[in-house]
């Protein structure tokens, strides 16, 4: 997967404490196919379960659902604007109001 994290998003994501991972979980109950991720979770460092995997962008590691890449067409840019994360690629904006939550 081509995963790009903009400078502003990296600055925000680097604020989380050591020993934590970034989890991007799709909302399976959502009927909106592209806006089914509403928050980025900061979770304890752990091994992914059987329905998850780890992807990396630079020195950031993300726990994602196994079909995460398919959902975003194998290309995703994570940006940070107006106090929210923005998910987009060269063809469309998926969601521009993704929050951050510590679990």
TrEMBL record:
SUPFAM superfamilies on file? HesB-like domain (SSF89360)
Core domain residues are: 1-100
Note the InterPro entries from the entry.
ATAP_core_dom (IPR000361), HesB-like_dom_sf (IPR035903)
Q: What is this protein called?
A: Iron-sulfur cluster biosynthesis family protein
Native organism is Rossellomorea aquimaris
């Amino acid at each position: 997967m081509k995963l790009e994290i903009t400078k502003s998003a990296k600055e925000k994501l680097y604020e989380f404490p050591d020993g934590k991972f970034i989890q991007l979980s799709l909302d399976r109950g959502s009927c909106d196919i592209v806006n089914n991720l509403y928050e980025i979770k900061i979770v304890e460092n752990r091994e992914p379960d059987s329905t998850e995997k780890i992807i990396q962008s630079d020195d950031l590691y993300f726990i994602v659902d196994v079909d995460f890449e398919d959902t975003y067409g194998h290309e995703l840019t994570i940006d940070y604007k107006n106090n929210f994360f923005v998910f987009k690629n060269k063809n469309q904006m998926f969601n521009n109001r993704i929050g951050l939550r510590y679990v």
